[in-house]
């Protein structure tokens, strides 16, 4: 018998007091009843005290609890996974009635796949741990936490024993101390007969353009064999040679020459004659080639765009100005703009020239945002009729990165607008694009229209296939919340879109509107727009009453030319897109266009609003003839304003980088008097240079090494003269291959040396941006601003020669376990020492006390005589 609260037993010392207090004093039969009543009361008190003490009864038990630990790391092959799954399934299906089992899946971390349960059935294993490593110790510790009390306990480890981190033997000792047996099921693959792998690629962190440097490759081989070593830069082979590998470690050095200033990635490939695993034959290293800063100019190419509009290349005046100021400029188009952060970081600044948001994929905008915020790149956006609000920047990563909002907050400058959006809800709109259905992307576009409208505007959204389905509105845009909630509930229907039916419903929605500007946006399928009869006549009626009609064709097809004609007939615009992801940008571009207050085309002189290095040496500027209206963000610096008080030139610090917004253009359209102006090159050169990272007064050497499953960063900081820099406050912004950034503080561990660490979870290239400076030194102190990179080329699992059955045997021996030899029934065998099961009995004690209470009352109060009997 055991007690959870033994101190409560001290209350039993009060029993003599109860005996003295309630002892019977009368004689005869009443005395006997008194003693019986007293005994009953003492029993009740004793039972209550034992219940308060948490009385438990211990008994021998033969129940079994088993936790299966399943290795799911990269070193486990699909046949081995199937073998483990079959073993566990057969074992669980043969569980005894009172036995329980749990399943833990592990790699570099451990996850509970199935909690402890008596169900004799195993659902398919779906948990996916980090597969880049094997931590047997964490799996054992998690398994120990799952055991219930009162059961014999067994861990069954199914693994190849190839541990990459953690102290598995120490974890086994903890299990043994807890009385838990660990049995093993080795998952062994055939031993590799021949293997060669690259274990390291070393290149300088920073080199000067044109400099010759050494790239060292460390390779290992299990035997003598020739191999081809190939080095690539930017996907192009720059060196290739045949090398002779010896058993053990081989160091191979190649001399290379740095080309253009860039953030260069050198990929090394090894092709051995005899090999087993191909995954470990490639690694890469990053090197920053230092030289004059490179500027990337992004502008649409001259020609005809997807909407059929003539496009003019607006980059030549700006490019000539920047090159005249000594900057190295490269040009690309929005469609060709890279999404690689490593490639973007090769440029000191990126300049967008009148770029429409729909010309950029969402990944492009996200990459630009990350490059500025996390890597310290610069961004300059030059305006034009296709930029800012007119270009659909509203609620995009571009808007977040820029120092201006796309909305003009001054509502007095806007006329009242009524907009009707006719949305195709045919069956094709239910198709998925990037994990989101097309109808949801269209709905998000309609939501952004609602967010752009002023409170006095009106909005209606009409989903149509063969008929209008639950139209929304017309409603005042002041009720944005309920309208947006209803729009986001839109779903796809069936059939094609009936264009005339949708236009008739839109006309009815506008019939009662008194707003001066009325506009209809029709989203239709370029290959399935039906019911064209009568549409031209209906559009003529609408335009006669001042309504404009724009068409958006989603997808190419035979109906695209007709939709384009209808847009021209409706005095609206035509938009073509083969990506539903562009619909939000198209819809917001339409909204800003019809509101007519975002595009200001009139002559004005810029007004100085704040001092900036961008205007160094510039005291007067020529007039401009137009710009796109925006609103400066609260923390932005407005340098030049327009005659209406809108920002013309604004700048701010965004994360580690800087961005500049110029809301006019840089061509003969609005800047006709700026292009020939003598200060034009200096102005743009200073604007672009302001966004580039200062990186002054420092020479930092950065190294990243992988130790078990942990990447360790080491930075040796020196000033321009080579002296060690101490007392720096440094942070390494680590960006993983999936674009997620994590700040890692670096602590000083030696003179001029700083260190930090992180755990890589994904194979690929990691970019590291170092930033910081001397504590309390202000602007004049030395600063560190450097981008470097590191590649986790393949999983540490592939660095090992093969399984480690000796480790598995050692773990089992620590706990008295053994190899189960692939027998599932041995995993659930009742061959463990019997355990003691503890069961609380305090509820039963209280129940007995409750039953005795009326007996006590009866003994004291109830008298039954012969007559009663």
Please characterize this protein's 3D structure.
The chain is an alpha/beta fold. 25% of the residues lie in helices and 33% in strands. An 8-stranded mixed sheet has the order 19-16-20-21-39-38-37-34. It has a 7-stranded antiparallel sheet with strand order 40-41-44-43-42-45-46, with no helix packed on it. Strands 27-26-23-29-31-32 form a 6-stranded mixed sheet, with helices on both faces. A hairpin with a 2-residue loop joins strand 11 and strand 12. Helix 2 packs antiparallel against helix 19 and helix 12 runs parallel beside helix 13. The longest helix is centred in the first third of the chain and has 25 residues. The mean pLDDT is 86.
Task: For the structure shown, list the relevant keywords.
single chain, 869 residues, alpha/beta, 8-stranded mixed β-sheet, 7-stranded antiparallel β-sheet, 19 helices, 25% helix, 33% strand
